[in-house]
Structure formats: structure tokens, C-alpha cells
Amino acid sequence: MEIPAELRYSADHEWVRPSNAGMQIGITDFAQDALGDVVYVELPEVGAHVTADEAMCEIESTKSVSDIFAPLSGVIAEVNVALEDEPQLVNESPYGDGWICVITPTEDTALADAEMAALLDADGYAALIAEDV
Q: Does residue 132 register a pLDDT over 90?
């Protein structure tokens, strides 16, 4: 199971990577494996306000429909429109081409800092999923 060291992780199996537009978000290798073959991704709307730990979109797989939770509060700055035609990218490249959106973190720096601090590093995430295996 791939767990890149440079990313931060939520307990809900989303990852966070700093990007030019804000914080890029996707689901982990563990999550995509548990979902099975992804057949549809309902992307969040650009400009929508999201709150940490609340559902921001859905992924449908051959097994189920699952909510994807915002790991950070802020505004959706960008979405990965390639997923509309190629939802399988979530399975094929969860840390690359299968990213879901970019969130511009809230302007409340204390809240943004607290939310980032609450995310797990790679070792913490590895320990979390070890409990689920």
C-alpha cells in the first residue's frame, strides 16, 4: 500500500498536498482499493464553501457510493474535470492524475493551522490503516 511521505492524511482516507492554487485533495491508495473499481465521481462545485470533516462530493464504485469528506475548510478553487470521463484515474493513480479538487484554505489562519495540524503524517496514517487491516 503506497503512502507518500510528503502528504498529510485525514482519518477518512483523504490526502492533502500543497499546490499553487491551494491544497490539492484526493483519496488514498487504501481508500481506492477498498472502494473497488470507481465508475463515477461527483465533483464538488468550484466556488463552493466546504467545512472540514463534512461531505464535499461522492465517489461511486462497483461496490458502493461513498462520501468524500473535506479534510480542510475553505473554498473549492479547482476540480479535476478529467474524472468526469475517466473516473478510473482514481484507481489507477490516486496520488497523481486521480486527484479530486483543490481547496483554498479558510482565511481564518488559526483555524487553517489547527486543521492542518490535525492531519496525520505518513507514519500516523500507516498506523491508522494497520488497525483496519
A: no
